[in-house]
Every structure is written in C-alpha cells, then in structure tokens.
Amino acid sequence: MQIGLIGLGKMGGNMRERIRRAGHTVIGYDRNPAVSDVGSLSELVDGLEAPRVVWVMVPAGVATQSTIDELAGLLETGDVVVDGGNSRWTDDEKHARELGAQGIGFVDAGVSGGVWGLENGYALMVGGDRDHVHRLQPIFEALKPEGPYGYVHAGKVGSGHFSKMVHNGIEYAMMQAYAEGWELLEKVDSVENVREVFRSWQEGTVIRSWLLDLAVDALDQDEHLDRLRGYAQDSGEGRWTVEAAVSHAVPLPAITASLFARFASRQDDSPQMKMIAALRNQFGGHAVESSKEEKKA
C-alpha cells in the first residue's frame, strides 16, 4: 500500500520506518529537509497514486488545522486524510465535515507508543466511517503490536482521539500514584534503598506495569532524580479529560488531582514531579528540566 506521512518527528519518523519495514511505500514530508522525502505537501500529493491516503502527524491545534486546510486544496474526491496527532475530538468532527463536503474521507487515530513504538508497535484507537477505516487496515496492521491486541475501531469520527484522551488521563493518574509512593519512600529514614524497592515490585505484585519498569530505568540513570527539576508539563489531554468529565457529570477524582498536581509543579521544585518528568522522558522522549544544582555544575 502507498501512503503519505506528514510530520517526521519523534513518533512520525519512527512510524514511517515501521510502515516501510512492513513492505508499504511511504512518502514523508517534514519542514526539516534533512528528514523529508519531498520538498512540499504538493509534491507529496503528486507522488501518490489516486485514491490517496495521507496521514498527518503534527501538533494539535493550529498546525493540524493549517495542514488539513492545505490538503483540502490538493486532494480529490475519494482520498482519505488520517489525523494521528493528539487533536481534540471536537476538532475531528469539524475536519470531517470540512473534508467531507469535498468528498474527502477523514479518520482520527489516537496513537500511543512514544519513542518505543518502532520496535514494540503502536496502540491505535481509531474513529471514522467503517469503509475508510477498512481501507486503512494494512497500515494499522503494520503499526500495531504483534498479536491480537493494540488496535480498536472505537466508533464514529472523534472516538479515536476521545479514547486516546481518556487513556492519557489514566496515564496521568498512574504516574502520580508512583510519584507519590516514591516521594514517601524517599522521606522515610528506615528505607535505605528506594530504587531496589521499586525494582522488587516489577515481579509478582499487583502494581507491576510498563510504567513501573520505566521508573526503575529512570532511577538506574539517576538514583534520587537529583539531576531533574520537579516540573512536569501537561499535554492538554488531561485538561480535556477533566472538561469532558464535567460535561458528562462523571466523577474523576484521581485524574483531576493528578492534573492539578502538574500545575502545582510549576510553583515549587516538587519531588513527585521529578518522577513524573522522568517517566514522561522514558516513554515519550519528552524534554526534562535540569535541577538548579545540575545547571550550576
């Protein structure tokens, strides 16, 4: 199968490689010419045989809107656009209407896997018309992990990104729980090897998980996370999850508290946020800020 891929950053570049490894043809475009296969979106579209499939992997909001607006002027009836970024589900509905008026299909794909997706595969939560989704199945199969799990057609347009938003809200709460436990262990004089306590939980306990494995990896690199500042960004999806919960009268105390804890991290050098910053760096390659002591060194 042939596909165009726009946005070749940490995830997009690895996705291009994984799709190619599965035997498909990928024409990639990025504003960085060093990683781009073509020099413009127009050149990308011209290089694809109709009916075309173009996958967008750029930041949510203005960047995604401008890319879809430009594609709308280049694509034709029967083509399909996939938004695989972290767009808000309400934007998906808008994009589907705009493109649908020109006979262009639209699919939203929530993608999870971070910097590990190239080797491990990407979890995919997809929303859209069944015919459009079916047409993209070879690409989804190439990207997903091996085995029966890791892919779902969640429902109508917007359902893929809504599902990924909830996934990220749960991720917030899980990371917060590990971070709070780590800080408490660090505070107690009788616990002399916090890192090995975390490591002991990796087998045989009910709280074992990939996030726990990544926490141990982070502690192996910096045992007390002294080199990190206790500051963690929020991607926006935590906020959207809480807003959706308010709209639907669904109580989300753990997820809401974890979002507010991120806000608190911007006021103080929070020990818990050191762990969350370390975890976000481990699974997603997200940037971290050095501690004041590390900066001085």
TrEMBL record:
It comes from Streptomyces macrolidinus. SUPFAM superfamilies: 6-phosphogluconate dehydrogenase C-terminal domain-like, NAD(P)-binding Rossmann-fold domains. This is Decarboxylating 6-phosphogluconate dehydrogenase. Residues 160-295 form the 6-phosphogluconate dehydrogenase C-terminal domain. It comes from the Bacteria. PANTHER family: 6-PHOSPHOGLUCONATE DEHYDROGENASE. Keywords: Gluconate utilization, Oxidoreductase. InterPro entries: 6-PGluconate_DH-like_C_sf (IPR008927), 6DGDH_YqeC (IPR004849), 6PGD_dom2 (IPR013328), 6PGDH_C (IPR006114), 6PGDH_NADP-bd (IPR006115), HIBADH-related (IPR015815), NAD(P)-bd_dom_sf (IPR036291), Pgluconate_DH (IPR006183). The gene is gnd. Belongs to the 6-phosphogluconate dehydrogenase family. Belongs to the HIBADH-related family.
